[in-house]
């Protein structure tokens, strides 16, 4: 097998379903925006700050990992700041060869300077549109869909679900809930999920990351999630061995082709997996679950889509065939209309991988 070069991974089209806007800022942008609003940072040297984010997120606990977001969210409280962060996100993903991305954020966390929820969404979508236009000019076109996240410990999910539906024709393609999993089951937000189902809208739920099977079961069987944010703990329902045996929930997830938004580096940082080599993605791929590869928080994990792919190549010996499979899985699982997904698969992804597969 010909060794896969990192620069070729960057060039090949990739699709990303799970990326947080407030987890992907450029360190230099955090420094500049913090200076504008007088927010104190652990350091104002962009390089050192980038390292600080990764180190803080490496602590192994989801709660501490979430603390790092206090700094990024603090500098994303005005329309120009949100717009800039979204524009740079689009440009960074495009430069990394991502051709389709769903980027999520929680509008309720950006109201400290009295923006309305609608103004927050409009600023972010405008930033994505601007960034995508600039990326196309630079020869690296990207399509971005926005997901609106509600915080699972809060009580605004119905409001945020309505906000998402209100903006469905102008860039918002789905809904999500996120935040500390333990103690905040997705069923707390049942009204919001039932509302979204009645509106024929799409949603994913962070479940099965820090917390195990009950969370995944609720997300799917009570809330009706289209996809699982992480869902990595589904392996707890699989008995390993020569012929692994699937429990009823794992079998259901695989039978129904429910997409798993796996985030290898992030899962290692939060302790959901011991290391990349030990990450259940290897087993889940072998068993042909609908596995997708994602970045989660590029700033906190010091990562990119290409880096996640490269880590998997290194750990599991994957080749272009597997990378194409992950990419098509993600594209099939996207929240944009079916014909538009197909167009990206047939006209962008397959031709590019065909050249590499020879
Ligand atoms: Zn996430």
From TrEMBL:
Q: Which GO terms describe its molecular function?
A: 2'-deoxyadenosine deaminase activity; adenosine deaminase activity; zinc ion binding
* Binding-site list for Zn(2+): 18, 20, 206, 296
Q: Which keywords, in A-to-Z order, does the entry hold? A: Hydrolase, Metal-binding, Nucleotide metabolism, Zinc
Q: What is its EC number?
A: 3.5.4.4
Where does the source fall among the domains of life?
A: Bacteria
The Gene Ontology biological process terms listed for this entry are: adenosine catabolic process; hypoxanthine salvage; inosine biosynthetic process; nucleotide metabolic process; purine ribonucleoside monophosphate biosynthetic process
State if Metal-binding is listed as a keyword: yes
Ranges for domain Adenosine deaminase come to 13-350
Entry-linked NCBIfam families: aden_deam, PRK09358.1-2
The UniProt function text for this chain reads: Catalyzes the hydrolytic deamination of adenosine and 2-deoxyadenosine.
The name this protein carries in UniProt is Adenosine deaminase
């Amino acid at each position: 097998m010909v060794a896969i070069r990192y620069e070729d991974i960057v060039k090949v089209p990739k699709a990303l379903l799970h990326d947080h806007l407030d987890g992907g800022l450029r360190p230099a942008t955090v420094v500049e925006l913090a200076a504008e609003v007088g927010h104190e940072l652990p350091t104002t040297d962009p390089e050192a700050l980038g390292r600080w984010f990764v180190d803080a997120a490496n602590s192994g606990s989801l709660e501490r990992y979430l603390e790092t977001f206090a700094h990024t969210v603090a500098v994303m409280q005005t329309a120009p700041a949100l717009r800039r962060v979204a524009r740079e996100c689009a440009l960074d993903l495009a430069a990394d060869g991502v051709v389709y991305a769903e980027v999520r954020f929680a509008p309720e966390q950006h109201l400290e300077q009295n923006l309305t929820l609608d103004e927050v969404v409009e600023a972010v979508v405008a930033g994505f549109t601007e960034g995508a236009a600039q990326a196309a000019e630079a020869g690296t076109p990207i399509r971005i869909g926005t997901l609106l996240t509600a915080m699972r410990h809060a009580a605004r999910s119905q409001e945020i679900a309505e906000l998402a539906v209100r903006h469905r024709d102008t860039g918002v393609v789905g809904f999500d809930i996120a935040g500390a999993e333990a103690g905040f089951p997705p069923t707390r937000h049942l009204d919001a999920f039932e509302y979204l189902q009645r509106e024929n809208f799409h949603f994913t739920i962070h479940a099965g990351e820090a917390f195990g099977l009950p969370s995944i079961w609720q997300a799917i069987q009570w809330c009706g999630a289209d996809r699982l944010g992480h869902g990595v703990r589904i392996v707890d329902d699989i008995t390993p061995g020569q012929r692994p045996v699937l429990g009823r929930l794992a079998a259901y997830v695989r039978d129904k082709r429910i997409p798993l938004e796996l985030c290898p580096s992030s899962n290692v940082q939060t302790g959901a997996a011991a290391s990349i080599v030990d990450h259940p993605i290897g087993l889940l791929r072998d068993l042909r679950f609908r596995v997708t590869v994602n970045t989660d928080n590029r700033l906190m994990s010091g990562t990119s889509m290409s880096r996640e792919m490269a880590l998997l190549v290194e750990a599991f010996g994957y080749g272009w065939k597997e990378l194409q499979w992950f990419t098509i899985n993600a594209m099939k699982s996207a929240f944009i209309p079916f014909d538009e997904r197909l167009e990206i698969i047939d006209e962008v992804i397959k031709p590019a991988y065909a050249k590499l597969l020879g």
